[in-house]
Specification:
about 160 residues, 5-stranded antiparallel β-sheet, 3-stranded antiparallel β-sheet, alpha+beta
Length: about 160
C-alpha cells in the first residue's frame, strides 16, 4: 500500500524538477544567444598558436580554431583551413593543450572534455539536462557543464 501511494508524489516531483531545469536552461540559452550576437560584431585576434608537444606539434591561427575535444590521452583539434573544416588528432591531454590555448582569450573551456572558440559559436540550446553550443562548421553540439555555464555568461559581458 505504501509503495503504491508513494509512487505518485515521486513521479510528480520528478516531472516538476525536470520542467524547472528545462525552463532554466532555455532561459539561459536565450540570454547567451543575445550576448553572442553582440559579441560577433567585435574584431577577433589572428595570432598563430603553435601547440608544441613531445610527440608532435601543430600550428593553427587562433581565430580558425573551432574547438578541441578530449579523448583520454588524445585530443582532436577542429579548425578551418582553406574555408573547410578539418580535424587533427594529436597525442596530448587537455592539461597539456590548456597552457598553449590560454594565450588566446577567445578560446575557453566549457566542459571537462571541450575547449571552444567563443567567436565561432552561432547559437545555443538548452534542455533539462544541459546547455549546448552550436557551430555552423561542426555536425555535433558542444556541451557546457553546469559549472562552466555561469563562467560563459561572465566571459560574454
Amino acid at each position: 500500500m505504501t509503495v503504491t501511494i508513494g509512487i505518485f508524489p515521486s513521479i510528480f516531483l520528478e516531472f516538476y524538477a525536470e520542467s524547472r531545469l528545462r525552463k532554466k536552461n532555455e532561459k539561459l540559452s536565450e540570454i547567451v544567444n543575445k550576448q553572442f550576437e553582440a559579441k560577433h560584431s567585435e574584431i577577433s585576434t589572428k595570432d598563430e598558436i603553435i601547440i608544441n608537444l613531445p610527440n608532435s606539434s601543430i600550428s593553427v591561427i587562433s581565430n580558425q580554431i573551432l574547438c578541441v575535444k578530449a579523448m583520454g590521452n588524445y585530443s582532436t583539434i577542429y579548425f578551418i583551413e582553406n574555408n573547410l573544416p578539418k580535424k587533427e588528432v594529436i597525442r596530448a591531454t587537455m592539461k597539456n593543450i590548456e597552457s598553449e590555448l590560454s594565450k588566446d582569450k577567445n578560446i575557453v573551456r566549457c566542459h571537462k572534455s571541450f575547449f571552444v572558440n567563443i567567436d565561432k559559436i552561432t547559437t545555443t540550446s538548452g534542455n533539462a539536462r544541459a546547455l549546448y553550443l552550436h557551430l555552423n562548421e561542426l555536425d555535433f553540439p558542444i556541451p557546457v557543464s553546469r559549472g562552466f555555464s555561469n563562467n560563459m555568461l561572465l566571459l560574454l559581458n
